[in-house]
Amino acid sequence: MKMYFSGSIYLPESNGLWVMNRLLPIISVICCLSCSLPQEKEVETPALAYLKLDDSLLEISEIVGGLEVPWDIETAEEGKLWFTELSGKIYRLDLQTQEKVLMLELPDVLSKKSYGLLGMTIDPKSKSAFLHYTFAVPKEGMEEEVNSRLVKYQISGNSLKNPQILMDSLPGATFHNGSRLLIGPDKKLYFSLGDVGKTDLTQNKDFLGGKILRLNQDGSIPPENPYPNNPVWAMGLRNSQGLVFGPNQQLYGSDHGPLNDDEVNLLIKGGNYGWPDVHGFADSEKEKIFAAKHQTIDPLFAWTPTIATAGMAYLGENMIPEWENTLLLVSLKGQSLRVLHLSADGKEIKDEGIFLQKHFGRLRDIALAKNGDIFFGTSNRDWHPRFQPWMYDNLPDGPDRILRIRKISDPSQIDPSLPVLERETEVIPLKDENWNFEVPDGLENGGILYTQHCLTCHGPYGKGAAGLIPPLEETEWVIGDKGKLIRVMLYGLSEPITVNGERYHQEMPAYSHLSDEEIAEILTFIRNSFGNKASAVIPGEVYEERKSGLKSKQ
Known about the structure:
The protein is an alpha+beta fold.
């Protein structure tokens, strides 16, 4: 006897029509009831301001608040917003219900200053998440070596599971680790890695720092890469924190310059962008000679003074007419959104629009959803304002947040009490960076604190005690690695150390109960007394070491 399937009910052929006639009224009622059930509405996010273009009006609202240095924002999964915090947390937000889920907190991330959990990208089709983060390799005493790794996770419900390390023990440093990750139209994984301070190796294709890398999603190297058995796709970069594909499947990247020439580059297969021998455009005689010899590629656009170029997105057609075919670039030091209008073929930047200067502070990343909504994250809680407070005035108070820009279909619904922002015609003045941390004129307070906490062991002249307490006078241990010195002050020391060729193994107590300011004053005094002469320790540096909580062991 044949059977017919209707929903979850099997109907015999002989009386199928009779049963269906009885069921149809019931099915109709059920369908009507389901149609009349209230549909789940999107949770409203109150507007903070509006952005007026020639014809379009855009609304700016807060989507997520209470964050600490959100680094990467991803919109690949429709209806969801993925984002990271530098400290090692990965979140997924349901854009309709505003439900936020902590998907993973990395247990081994080293988060300080500008390093920690950096690049992230999501591939919804394979249910994969790719993460790049720094970790510490403990060395003798309080010394540490910074490395980084690229890891693939499986998305499983509300968590990330089954980590697979694709690249391990990548070169790292306390600065210039990059990075951004991106799945290309070719389904390959693109990965920017900073020069990690090894500028002498950036032009070496076998050193991975200062490069754009290209991998298969399992970590293997695609055979069509420009160099055999090598993940390098492009080279000669300093510290790229923006990657995006634009028109004609072309890859664009932003790059941090030193004190000059932040860049946006069109990144081609095997391209060399000149760092450290060419800064920005090859316009000096020395740069021209290097560029001709190595066939380097000039940027599409460069900024001097630098604005600290960061995350990028591409805005195509049928979204915001005034911004059609543009690269959206956020900046940190420049505290702005730059709208870069491309030529039809995408090989030139024809115009730059400047928006949102100083309204939301430092901006780290930006992403575009399929429906045209634009998301960007602030970075006002990161290390830079603490290390160089003179660079900033009136940064927004409170934690970092993620904001949304979207087009308003009915301008009559706007709140007239909120500000309406427009394209800006003048660039805010940018102050010079000064990394010397000048020693203050008076060290009296540091001397008093030294007397209270250190003099009993190290003595009034910093000579220590032979075979027991290491000296502080004229020693590289004091004037060298500030991070190591701060960690010893915070966490104490129980391991043997070698100072001026002699080995000491006397326990030193921890002073983490002292404030950041007090520790900075003591160490600045020590680094400029007893025959030492070195830069000051500032409270922001102590804060970063304390935040990481790292207690390296042998």
